[in-house]
Specification:
The chain is mainly α and about 280 residues long. The chain contains 11 helices and 2 strands. About 80% of the residues lie in helices and about 5% in strands.
Length: about 280
């Protein structure tokens, strides 16, 4: 019997002893509409609790002042406000850091899988140091220690810090994806005289994409969220813009709720796009 038959038989045995209404309830809760409703319910409960707490504090809500930070109407037309420009800065910072992190992750993964003893130890030491260091500490090291030594401005230090931190995590994704390719394909490629580079280029990496796509999507989302930490050194991005607006207007609740909503929308768009891409790649395979 195939693996699919075993799984199907196991599912049938698991559901056979339960009442019918329990099986129907589990199917309903596992459906996508139910998941969306549960998610919206949890978010609504959090927002309602925050609103109730602010009301108990006697907070004076001023939501009518928020639209001006998205767009402003001038004689020349409509211009973008501070929040969209902050989002552009966040996306640019995250994209640059992610590209560099992908390159670092690939190099570290190849070193760990190489036959070079020194390369494996260097890659392992890099991983242990980065993975066991808080991101905020790394940011301070890059800006206050490496910055004066290598003449790095705050933006360059932020990009390098995010790239190194996430590069260590991405290297493990690359390593797992490469190891997921059956060993027999490596041996077949060696048998026909392919070089190491050709094996990676034409056989291993193309097949590893479907294994690496879901966790790489998670790293993109984590990169965008991690970029908020660079606000502690005043890099111009979404969180820094939000802090500057709060310091000028004292609209703490309104601005932070708005900033959180912007982050959530961006990450949901990325996650949805990656899911569609993953489905298309799976169907094509």
């Amino acid at each position: 019997m195939s693996a699919g038959g075993n799984i199907a038989g196991t599912d049938v045995r698991r559901t056979r002893g339960r009442p019918r209404w329990q099986n129907q309830l589990r199917r309903i809760l596992a459906s996508r509409p139910a998941s969306i409703l549960i998610y919206l319910g949890i978010v609504s409960a959090i927002v309602a609790s925050a609103l109730k707490g602010a009301e108990a504090m006697g907070y004076n809500w001023q939501w009518y002042r928020i639209p001006r930070y998205f767009y402003e109407t001038t004689e020349g037309g409509i211009v973008l406000g501070k929040i969209p420009w902050g989002l552009v800065g966040t996306i640019a910072l995250s994209a640059t850091a992610f590209l560099l992190a992908t390159l670092i992750g690939l190099i570290v993964a190849l070193l760990r899988l190489s036959d070079l003893i020194v390369g494996r130890w260097v890659a392992r030491g890099f991983l242990e140091i980065v993975r066991n260091s808080p991101l905020l500490v790394l940011l301070y090291v890059f800006y206050y220690v490496f910055g004066p030594i290598f003449a790095l401005d705050r933006y360059s230090a932020s990009v390098l810090c995010l790239a190194v931190f996430h590069g260590a995590l991405i290297s493990e994704i690359f390593r797992a994806g490469i190891n997921a390719v059956p060993r027999g394909q490596w041996e077949a490629a060696d048998a026909i005289g392919m070089t190491r580079w050709q094996v990676y280029r034409y056989i291993v990496l193309p097949q590893s994409v479907r294994f690496m796509l879901p966790p790489m999507t998670g790293e993109v989302v984590n990169m965008i969220k991690s970029s908020a930490i660079v606000s502690v050194i005043a890099v111009a991005e979404l969180t820094t813009i939000g802090r500057n607006i709060i310091s000028d207007t004292y609209l703490s609740f309104e601005i932070w709720f708005t900033i959180a909503a912007v982050y959530m929308v961006v990450t949901l768009i990325i996650s949805t796009g990656a899911t569609l891409l993953e489905r298309r790649y799976t169907v094509r395979d």
